[in-house]
Amino acid sequence: MTSAFAFLLASRQCEIAELEQLARSCELVGAVARLVHALQRERGISNVFLSSRGQRFARQRREQQAECERAEAGLRQWLDALETSATPVGNGSRLFSRIALVLHALEGLPALRERITGHELVAAEATAAFSVLIASLLAVVFEAADSATDPDVSRALVALLHLMQGKEFAGQERALGARSFATGHIDAAGQQQWRHLIESQQSCLQVFADFSQAEGAPAGVASPPSPGSADLARLRHLGCTGDGALDSAFSDAWYETCTRRIDDLHADEDRLARHLRTLCERRIAQAREDLSDQRAVLDRLLGQARPVEPDAPAPLGRQLGRAVFEMAQTQSRRLQDLSGELEAARARLNDRKTIERAKGLLMAHRQISEDEAYKALRQLAMNQNKRLVDVAEALLSLAEVLPARDRPFDGAQDGAKKSSFG
Amino acid sequence: MTSAFAFLLASRQCEIAELEQLARSCELVGAVARLVHALQRERGISNVFLSSRGQRFARQRREQQAECERAEAGLRQWLDALETSATPVGNGSRLFSRIALVLHALEGLPALRERITGHELVAAEATAAFSVLIASLLAVVFEAADSATDPDVSRALVALLHLMQGKEFAGQERALGARSFATGHIDAAGQQQWRHLIESQQSCLQVFADFSQAEGAPAGVASPPSPGSADLARLRHLGCTGDGALDSAFSDAWYETCTRRIDDLHADEDRLARHLRTLCERRIAQAREDLSDQRAVLDRLLGQARPVEPDAPAPLGRQLGRAVFEMAQTQSRRLQDLSGELEAARARLNDRKTIERAKGLLMAHRQISEDEAYKALRQLAMNQNKRLVDVAEALLSLAEVLPARDRPFDGAQDGAKKSSFG
């Protein structure tokens, strides 16, 4: 017969299991962050290599490839453990499909490198290929953040996701600038893309800065100007606002300024990853201690409840029942409170989901690509001077009045939706 | 070595496992709904029994108690299976702590019945005791709805939760009216409570009605007037708006009208529970079929990829790699889209979490009880003519400027929050 007692302890044990799973996700995110950073460096180096027609950075490229391989091996170790482990993974279906995409993209990496070595690609194409791979890695971090069950860990993961995304925009900016300074010119579309990268970067890093400030992190971690920031502003101004002619003498300064900045951001990533580890460890230790305290109290009461017949099954004495009730009530209230806080911490992830849904709607409705749908949304937001998520929400609220058209991937489900129940 | 192929299939398998778990949660909710209904009847019958000083409904009470015991045994069977099963439970920590509270409340039921038999309680006290037990059961349904991973199932569970909650308000209204008509009078506080029960009931049933309409359910399920509704309106008017003197001749009519209405709502519950079962079965069958289709395509390509050396490990041919990539991409997009839809389906649950958080804040800040905090929020909402959730949100947004005070249950966590990272 199941008892309140058994479920009270089972609840604590589940909580610990959930936290341990979260700790594993955080380790996975750390391994992803290291590979992303190595790939961003390789992308930057490959850009200089290609733009200089192989004259520069050939050695650095070889060294960086070896670095990437080490980081990849580190990630694969986590993935092997994940695939063979019997422990459940929160949000497994989405996480695993994201990992499948990462592994597919990694399988194409040797071929990409060969084509760069053979100068079969221009710098912009190589950048785009690396960026697709990195985007697939960031999507894994998104899923990990989305499956977090603890508000503090969730907040830290959301901050890390935005820091990584902001750093990725910084890496793309470095690549774009490196190409432009190396070739000595940039067109209007390039300048618009550059401004877009700066803007997106700042909005992502602001999320991280807000988090750092709220957590009382040491000053100067993120948004306050990092050294070289004045140089960066000057070089950006040259690149984005001029008539398109650029002085290639600034190539090195640009590359170094950006690299310093990206390395600073990477140091922040490392700090935040360590913070995440400490946070998980502390939570798990606390939950274990609470479980053991509860057990001790209940065992003592259980002992008192059966002093007469030591062999008989212990009846739940009135005092024990009361203790179980009070513990279960405190636990329920605490978990419910955490769950509410979690929703608040996830708000930014939900914004992203809203934007994704609106994009999907546009893609299905106008039969356009993902990229075109994103640009259309962005244009709408700029024209109306609204946030992207507000435009996305407005669009979704109109979904019902738009003529229905089956989306390719869930036609079967549409049938189910229209049927009546009962 | 882990491959994209392996993770693609693992993603599908996880999806199936998540759906199977959801199907089990829905069965649990069905068992909870049956016990709630039996207890609501017993509460109603006990009210008449107590108000008539044991003259009426003694036989019905015995029969209904047997009915409750059968329903309780049905629920305990599910709980036993849940406790001993090795399969993971989504949201286990919260669900289990809720179940612990239910089991504790059930342990007190025999004593409650004895006190009713011995007329040691007045009707209002007995009603309150049953209502606490039923509230603990509804909290289990809330957690089940909160852990749903499929948007259609989530929508149906949210509708069922509101239908059950609305029916519970209807049950409390029946009890209040039964007491009032039986004793022949009602005071102003009782009338206010009555109006509050009607209002809360309607807003819950509206959620269910919206869902039924969206799903194209047969007309007349919920919000449209059920037979006896004109009688109900007339009797409500007598009870809520007069000078407090009531004609006890209406006792039977009141009890029967309400009971008919509650039984109608229970029929809706049954239909919705069946709909949920069908929905889960259909989803699982579809996911299994998709998995087997994917496997067939990939096995065929895998066969084509190794015609030369049948014993060598199969290399992932270019065509196979492409197929894996396309499947993983479709799957990711579909799952992401579902996840966005899920957030939308959960919006009403999140409203409730917001209200819970605001309540918790008030309780901690003003050192008041849960009930007092709820009443304070409600009063604020009425004074400002705003929705409860909007007042709750406004309050939470002010949390930072309110003087900090450690909540009793997470003092340890507050320490962590204030610490810096790195």
From TrEMBL, chains A, B:
InterPro entries: ANTAR, CheY-like_superfamily, Nitrate/nitrite_sensing, WH-like_DNA-bd_sf. Residues 335-396 form the ANTAR domain. GO terms for molecular function: RNA binding. Gene3D superfamilies: Winged helix-like DNA-binding domain superfamily/Winged helix DNA-binding domain. This is ANTAR domain-containing protein.
